[in-house]
Amino acid sequence: MSALGRPHALRPSDALRLASFVVAAVGLGVAGYLTAVHYGGGSPVCAIAHGCATVQQSDYASLAGVPVALLGVLGYAAILAGLLVDSEPARLATAFLALVGAGFSAWLTYVEVFTLEAICIWCVASAVCMTALAALSAARALVEPAHRAVHGDGP
């Protein structure tokens, strides 16, 4: 609360951080589901597009023997960990991880459409989450230093 009894307004980077946390949690849920399906030996529920099994069983579903879905779990978990720390190095690391994840997701989406000719709606959902995280975390990395320069408050 301020001296006037009003709640403090959220800093722009705090709003971006909160939005990032929500998006990363959704992405972690999607990647976790796909990882569970992979290790459970089943096929993902695929009501909208019907290419989930094709994508999940393709040669592109793993990288160096590691399921891509598990890489997603690790990526989202690392991003969530970075969001727990409010410092410039954490903001930059989070932005870097999200940008790399978005690039990897873009490549996987290209493979789905043009190589496998199959769309996995879960993979699309994860790609949307990672792309949103890239935008949010890059904005947060840029906004916070500008906010501190103008307002002079701490991290």
Question: Mind explaining what this structure looks like?
Answer:
With 155 residues, the chain is mainly α. The protein has a single domain, classed as Up-down Bundle (de novo design (two linked rop proteins)), CATH 1.20.1440. The protein is built from five helices and two strands; from the N terminus they run H-H-E-E-H-H-H. Strands 1-2 form a two-stranded antiparallel ribbon. Strand 1 and strand 2 form a beta hairpin. The longest helix is centred in the C-terminal third of the chain and has 31 residues. The radius of gyration is 18 Å and the shape is elongated. It starts with 11 loop residues before the first helix and ends with a helix. The model has no long low-confidence stretch (mean pLDDT 89).
Q: Would you state the CATH class?
A: Mainly Alpha
- What is the alpha-carbon Rg in Å? 18 Å
Taken together, the total number of domains comes to 1
CATH topology: de novo design (two linked rop proteins)
Give the end-to-end Cα distance, rounded to a whole number of Å.
Answer: 18 Å
Neighbour order of strands in the largest sheet? 1-2
The major sheet is characterized as: 2 strands, antiparallel
Structural class: mainly alpha
Instruction: State the helicity in percent bands.
Output: over 70%
> Whole-number average pLDDT?
89
* Tally of DSSP helical segments: 5
Number of strands: 2
What is the overall shape? elongated
| Low-pLDDT ranges | none
Topology order in helix (H) and strand (E) letters? HHEEHHH
CATH superfamily, by name, is: VKOR domain
CATH architecture: Up-down Bundle
